[in-house]
Design a protein that fits this description.
- The complex is a heterodimer of chains A (32) and B (526).
- With 32 residues, chain A is an all-alpha fold.
- In chain A, 91% of the residues lie in helices and 0% in strands.
- Chain B has 526 residues and is mainly alpha-helical.
- In chain B, 76% of the residues lie in helices and 0% in strands.
- In chain B, helix 1 crosses helix 15 and helix 7 packs across helix 14.
- Classes of the chains: A mainly alpha (32), B mainly alpha (526).
- The interface between A and B is medium-sized, with 20 and 26 residues.
Chain lengths: 32, 526
C-alpha cells in the first residue's frame, strides 16, 4: 500500500477511535 | 397492564444501557457484510470519502433528529411515529404518514429474523466442524470452483439448490429460525430495561471482543497460495485513496445508502428507543456515542475482517468476484472456506457467526420494539399480548421469504431501500419545517451533555432534506423501473403481502384514534 493509503487508513481509523474515546470520556465525566 | 397506563411508560435503566441498546440497534449484519461489499463494489478508496462526508451531512444530523423526535414523543406518552407525527404536525394525514415508522421495521424483520437464524446455525456448524474441506492451493483452481462446495452447503441449507420458484430449506434451518424467533420474542417480553437493555449490555461488549479477536487473526494471516499477498494487500484494496469517486454519483448514492443502513435511520427504531428517555436527559452525547460505536465497528472491524481475509486467500481479483456476488457470498461462503484452512478454524468460524448473530439479534429486538410500543401506547395492549401477536405474525409471515424465491429481494427493496428514505425525509420536514426549526433544535439540545455545533442546525434544516430528496429521486430513477418490471411468484406475493400489511396498519391506526376519541369523551363526561 502506498504512503497515502496508510495515511488515509490511520486518519480514518484514528478519527473513529478518537470519537469513541471522546464519547466514553464525556459519558463518564458527565456521570460524576 | 401496559406500562404506560396512568401516563407511565417504561424507561431505560441506565445511560450506558441506553447507549449500548442504541449501538446494538445500529450495529447489525450490515456493518460486517454489507459495508465491505459496498466498499469493494464502489472502488474501495473511492467509496470512503463520500462515505465519511455522508456520515457528517446525513448520518449524524438525521440520527439526532430521530432521537429528538422520539424523546419528544415519549414525553407525550407515545413511542411510535403515527402518534408523534400527529403531535408535531396538526394534520389529518400525519398519523398515516407515520405508519411507515411501524410498517418498515416489521417488513424488514419478516426476512431479517430468518437471515439472523442462519448466523446462529452456522456458528454451531463451525463449532461442530461440519463444513466441507477443499485443499487450499491444490491445483490451479479458480475462486468460483474453490468456493463451489461452500456455496452448495449454503444453498442446501436454505433449499436453493434446485433453482426453482420455491425454496425447500432443511429442517434444521426451520429449527434455528424458531429458536431465533423465540429468543427475540422472549427478550422483548421482558421489556425495555430488563430485556432489551440487559441483552445489549452483554451482546455489544461481547461483539467487540469477538471482532477484536478476528481482526487480529486476519491481520496476521498468510496467503496459502501467494506469499506476496499479505494483510497490507487487503487493506490497500479498501484504503488506497481514489479521488475519482468524488465525481461519481453512483458512488455517492451507495455511500449515502450505506450510512442510512448502518445507523438504522428511517426505520422508526431510533424514535421508539429514544421515547423511553426522560425528557430532561441528554440525547446529544448519547446519540454521538452510539453512532461512534457503530462507526468503529464498521470502519475498523467491518472493513477488515471479511474483505481483507478474502483478499489474502483469493487475491484482489477473487475478492472482487466474491464481493460482487453480494453480502451472503462474503459472509456465508467465503468466510467458512477461509476458516476451514486456518488453525483453530472451527473456533474462529464459531465466533465470526456468533458475532453476526449478536449483531443481528440486537437489531431484531430494536426493529420489533416499534410495533410493541404501538400496541402498548396506542391500543392499550399488555406487553404479553403484544409480543405473542407479533410472534405469531412473524412465524407466519417469515414463510414468504423462506419458501418463495424472489420475495426477500422484493420486500427488501420497498422497505429497506426506498421506504426508509421516504420516512427519513418526512421526519426532517415535519420536525424542522412544520414543527419549527428553532423548536426542533431546542428539543435536540435540551439536557445535552455536549453542545452540538450550530452549523448542524443549518445542515439539518437545509442540507439533510436536500440530500435525502436527491437520494430518493436518484434511487427511484435508477432502480424503480427495474424493480417494477420484475415478475414471478415471489415478486407478486411480496407485493400482495406489503399491500395487505399496509392495509392492516391503516386499520390499526383508525382503531387507535377511535379509541383515543372515546377515551377523551369519557374523560370529559367525568
Amino acid at each position: 500500500m502506498s504512503d497515502a493509503g496508510w495515511l488515509f487508513l490511520v486518519v480514518s481509523w484514528g478519527a473513529v477511535a478518537i470519537l469513541v474515546l471522546y464519547s466514553i470520556y464525556k459519558v463518564f465525566a458527565s456521570s460524576e | 397492564m401496559p406500562d404506560n397506563h396512568n401516563g407511565r411508560r417504561e424507561q431505560w435503566g441506565s445511560r450506558w444501557g441506553l447507549i449500548l441498546a442504541m449501538a446494538g440497534n445500529a450495529i447489525g449484519l450490515g456493518n460486517f457484510l454489507r459495508f465491505p461489499v459496498q466498499a469493494a463494489q464502489n472502488g474501495g478508496g473511492a467509496f470512503m470519502i463520500p462515505y465519511f462526508v455522508s456520515f457528517i451531512l446525513l448520518g449524524l444530523p438525521l440520527m439526532w433528529i430521530e432521537w429528538g423526535v422520539g424523546r419528544y414523543g415519549g414525553s407525550l406518552g407515545h413511542g411510535t411515529s403515527p402518534a408523534i407525527f400527529d403531535a408535531l404536525w396538526k394534520s389529518r394525514v400525519a398519523k398515516y404518514v407515520g405508519i411507515l415508522g411501524v410498517f418498515l421495521p416489521l417488513v424488514v424483520l419478516v426476512y431479517y429474523i430468518y437471515v439472523c437464524s442462519w448466523t446462529l446455525a452456522f456458528s454451531v456448524f463451525s463449532a461442530l466442524g461440519s463444513y466441507p474441506v477443499v485443499e487450499a492451493g491444490s491445483g490451479a483452481v479458480s475462486t468460483a470452483s474453490y468456493l463451489a462446495p461452500y456455496r452448495a452447503y449454503l444453498n442446501d441449507y436454505i433449499g436453493a439448490s434446485s433453482g426453482g420458484a420455491f425454496f425447500t430449506p432443511l429442517p434444521i434451518a426451520y429449527f434455528f429460525f424458531i429458536v431465533t424467533l423465540v429468543m427475540g420474542m422472549a427478550i422483548l417480553g421482558k421489556g425495555v430495561a430488563k430485556g432489551i437493555e440487559v441483552l445489549n449490555k452483554i451482546a455489544i461488549p461481547a461483539l467487540f471482543v469477538m471482532a477484536a479477536v478476528l481482526f487480529i487473526r486476519v491481520l496476521s494471516m498468510n496467503s496459502p497460495v501467494d506469499s506476496n499477498v499479505t494483510a497490507a494487500t487487503g487493506l490497500a484494496f479498501l484504503w488506497e485513496p481514489d479521488m475519482s469517486g468524488l465525481l461519481n454519483p453512483k458512488v455517492w448514492l451507495s455511500a449515502a445508502g450505506q450510512v442510512f443502513f448502518t445507523l438504522s435511520l428511517g426505520m422508526g427504531a431510533i424514535i421508539t428507543y429514544a421515547s423511553y428517555v426522560k425528557h430532561s436527559d441528554d440525547i446529544a452525547l448519547a446519540g454521538l456515542a452510539a453512532a461512534s460505536f457503530n462507526e468503529f465497528a464498521e470502519v475498523v472491524f467491518g472493513s477488515t475482517i471479511a474483505l481483507v481475509s478474502a483478499v489474502i486467500f483469493f487475491g484482489p481479483q477473487g475478492a472482487s468476484v466474491i464481493a460482487g456476488d453480494g453480502a451472503f457470498s462474503l459472509g456465508f461462503i467465503s468466510m467458512p472456506a477461509i476458516f476451514t484452512h486456518i488453525g483453530y478454524g472451527g473456533f474462529y468460524g464459531f465466533i465470526w457467526f456468533l458475532l453476526l448473530f449478536f449483531a443481528g439479534i440486537t437489531s431484531v429486538v430494536a426493529l420489533a420494539q416499534p410495533a410493541i410500543a404501538f400496541f402498548e401506547d396506542e391500543l392499550g395492549w399488555t406487553r404479553r399480548r403484544s409480543v405473542i401477536t407479533l410472534a405469531i405474525f412473524f412465524f407466519i409471515a417469515a414463510h414468504l421469504p423462506m419458501l418463495v424465491t424472489g420475495a426477500l429481494d422484493e420486500l427488501d427493496f420497498w422497505a429497506a431501500t426506498l421506504g426508509l428514505v421516504i420516512l427519513a425525509l418526512f421526519e426532517v420536514i415535519i420536525f424542522f419545517w412544520i414543527f419549527g426549526a428553532e423548536k426542533a433544535w431546542e428539543e435536540i439540545a435540551c439536557g445535552g451533555r455536549i453542545r452540538i455545533p450550530r452549523v448542524f442546525f443549518y445542515i439539518m434544516k437545509y442540507v439533510t432534506p436536500l440530500f435525502l430528496f436527491v437520494i430518493l429521486v436518484a434511487w427511484g430513477y435508477d432502480q424503480l423501473p427495474g424493480v417494477l418490471s420484475k415478475s414471478g411468484v415471489g415478486v407478486w406475493l411480496g407485493r400482495a403481502f406489503l399491500l395487505a400489511l399496509l392495509g392492516a396498519h391503516i386499520y390499526a391506526v383508525k382503531v387507535a384514534w377511535k379509541r383515543r376519541r372515546n377515551r377523551r369523551v369519557t374523560e370529559d363526561m367525568q
